[in-house]
Amino acid sequence: MSNVFPDGFLWGGATAANQVEGGFHEGGKGPNLADVLPGGKENRLKLLSDTGFDFEMDTDKYTYPNHEAIDFYHRYKEDIALFAEMGFKTFRMSIAWSRIFPKGDELEPNEEGLAFYDRVFDELAKYDIEPLVTIAHYETPLHLIKEYGGWRNRKLVEFFERYVTVIFNRYKDKVKYWLTFNEINGATHMPLFGLGFSPENEETRLQDSFQGLHHQFVASAKAVQLGHEIIPGSQIGCMLLYAPVYAYDSNPENVLYAKKESLLFNNFCGDVQVRGEYPNFIDRYFQENDINIEMEDGDLALIKEGTVDFISLSYYMSRTDKKNKTPEELGQGNLIGGVKNPFLEASDWGWEIDPKGLHIALMELYGRYQVPLFVVENGLGAYDKVEEDGSVNDDYRIDYLREHIRAMGEAIKDGVELMGYTAWGCIDLVSASSGEMSKRYGFIYVDKQDDGSGSFDRSRKKSFYWYKNVIATNGEEL
Ligand code: BGP
Fold first, then answer.
1. Fewest Cβ atoms nearer than 10 Å: which of 6, 29, 75, 97?
2. Is 182 touching ligand 1 by the criterion CB < 6 Å?
3. 175 C-alpha vs ligand 1 centroid, how far in Å?
4. Catalytic center at which residues (predicted)?
């Protein structure tokens, strides 16, 4: 088989600051959203769907796993050396906004925070690993949440602009690839993560989420403009949580329903950020749900001018759905709803495993937008067993990744332009939705357990050697 992956394909791995760094009050960093999210699956999942979270910590009752995370803050050299050993061409990471602006609304940045990322980028450069930087990954400064109500407040656009101006200027010679808001379209499902607010009640959830999204669209467009000005040749992408929606059966009513759900979930944000316009279909949805977006003069023109250079996406699962569901059919563990797909198996966390869904996702996205795509998250969260000799034989992870990489190859054969692939959680990290360490994604095992115990030592899993060879053969040997 001749090689389907183009030369220069950006193989690598992905993380987010709050899930790896730790050092939560070191180097002048201020607290952010992730610092007040308790550990434990039930606690976290409840928060994500709940209303009225107060953003206070209760250390008697809960643990806070992101405080230490996996201590990348102190161990980044060792970790980057391991990424280099695997042959990474790129490393996706985020900058924690509250390391740069501890409260978020200051006028002057925190030099220690800036210097930390200088060191990380310099370390990556030693090994020719290209950084791919997410500007906002579920880590809004806590002060902006408590004082301003998160992204519902227009003020955040201004604070964000200050933040991106500082980081673009500081890192202009070190970082070429940027992403604005992680999984921006997840906002209406989980406003807590992306928008930094917990709805007061179900009635205000949609209105506030779409208003917050509008502010992020404006902020993202502004960032694209600034990035292009400050860093000539930079590539700035949006980031979508993409889950193709399948109709449960061929009943046209269900097909239509699935189509509409997909437009709303998968395409609304992309339409705004890639095409630079609110799509026509959203008018009806806004009317029917009584959603009124406050816009300022110039917002729509800015959105039109600040369209992204490429689309990045996370892909974990597809969604199967039908118009009329019984309560028993609902949910089924997939984070984004839907009903159980009888053809698919699920992970231990109930996430349905569907490599073909990635092929479909890439074809849908490329067909609609015709801009380069970048898969910046994909992977299997699983319980790993450490053998007596210290090895981790994670064949299940290899199987999962192999099939998804194959699916990307098939999409490339179908004409999709794909820039790269960064496997999520290339080193074990704190799970976003459950706060657990035991939901592991890594090629590199980290000896830290759910209760926070462990040596934090790193070791290579079987998948480490497998992925190294995948990269070395540019995806030819899977
Ligand atoms: C995405 C997030 C990541 C990440 C991943 C896996 O939604 O962008 O931050 O954590 O999902 O999810 P989880 O950690 O819940 O398994």
1. 6
2. yes
3. 23
4. 377 (nucleophile)
Q: What is the pLDDT along the chain (478 residues), one digit of tens a residue?
A: 458 999 999 999 999 999 999 999 999 999 999 999 999 888 888 887 788 999 999 999 999 999 999 999 999 999 999 999 999 999 999 999 999 999 999 999 999 999 999 999 999 999 999 999 999 999 999 999 999 999 999 999 999 999 999 999 999 999 999 999 999 999 988 999 999 999 998 889 999 999 999 999 999 999 999 999 999 999 999 999 999 999 999 999 999 999 999 999 999 999 999 999 999 999 999 999 999 999 999 999 999 999 999 999 999 999 999 999 888 787 666 667 899 999 999 999 999 999 999 999 999 999 999 999 999 999 999 999 999 999 999 999 999 999 999 999 999 999 999 999 999 999 999 999 999 999 999 999 999 999 999 999 999 999 999 999 999 999 999 9
- Ligand 1 near 235 CB (within 6 A): no
Catalytic residues: 377
Q: By alpha-carbon position, which residue is closest to atom 12 of ligand 1? A: 432
Is residue 179 classed as helix, strand or coil in its secondary structure?
strand
Query: Domains (ranges, CATH) in the chain?
Result: 10-472 (3.20.20.80)
For 78-143, the DSSP string reads HHHHHHHHHT-SEEEEE--HHHHSSSS--SS--HHHHHHHHHHHHHHHHTTPEEEEEEESS--BHH
**Could you say which DSSP state residue 339 is in?**
B
CA atoms of 197 and 420, how far apart (whole Å): 32
Tell me whether strands 458-460 and 444-446 are parallel, antiparallel or unpaired. antiparallel
Nearest ligand 1 atom, CA 351: 16
Is the shortest distance between the CB of 437 and ligand 1 below 6 Å?
no
CB 186 within 8 A of CB 151: no
Token readout for 450 is 């759910």
Distance from Cα 47 to the centre of ligand 1, integer Å: 15
Which residue has tokens 């809960």? 62
